[in-house]
């Protein structure tokens, strides 16, 4: 029996998602970055002789994913010699009827977890791997509510796309509790919901960590992005974080002085960055000052900076005008990322119908239409509404 087992844990590729912060011209480069990161992950598995690869959620963006993307991912994973792959479908790619995971035949070394916590035993490693995938766009209860640990002598690892209660909560995501982790009896709990690396955590005898998303997508995704390398032994769990993300997002806030020339402003920005940083990372320059002055500077400053910073956008942040009154805006569907989906458009139109209905029977009618339509379109997905 193996004395230990080595693994890599990662999450949040979201292949085919259009949600990248910055100008549209960045999107093609960022999509290519994502594939380079995926290839770097596969190369790391081979170089480190990794036995187990854990993909803990959001491998795809279900609303936009293409069949050729799923087939390409499956083919590449199938080429990992000596590495078994375990996938937990997440909040953005749940294992629904029309799931991305049903668009191809997966290679024999890939196991995809479905509803409810199930286990896979690897006798050669004296190991049991537990996992559960999302099968709808929202949870009815916490993954660990009904979990009963099995008392045997195997090493135990659990994979979940979930959040721990101390990390906060969001709509459609029911957190697991620290005492549930402690009572699970697993040696290591691999999570994949947070935007950033959680650090090494422990509840009772169970070590747990969230790897965060592998590639930053916005200017709020600060910090390092990459994978967790781990080794599980009967008496200990050792994990480390390895950065793999291709680029980082940085915001720079700059107050423009009236006497400064365009060249002087650009020099102030450039001199703070190393040559490698300038070529690699993505920058948003927020310039503030006199409203008329900074709006005039935006376009020429961006053109000047692009000679040194391939990925830069300049935005004017004028001082607020005290005489300006922000009038109420009509309600609309809240499109948080990318482009409006059919479900979001449908929901917005039905909200208009409901607000215009006068008689109670009409309101009841349109309410029923909304429920039936959203069930058909969303397969359980919740559409946010203002």
TrEMBL record:
It comes from the Bacteria. GO terms for molecular function: exonuclease activity. InterPro entries: DNA_Repair-Maintenance_Comp, Metallo-depent_PP-like. Signal peptide: none annotated. Keywords: Exonuclease, Hydrolase, Nuclease. This is DNA repair exonuclease SbcCD nuclease subunit. It comes from Desulfosporosinus hippei DSM 8344.
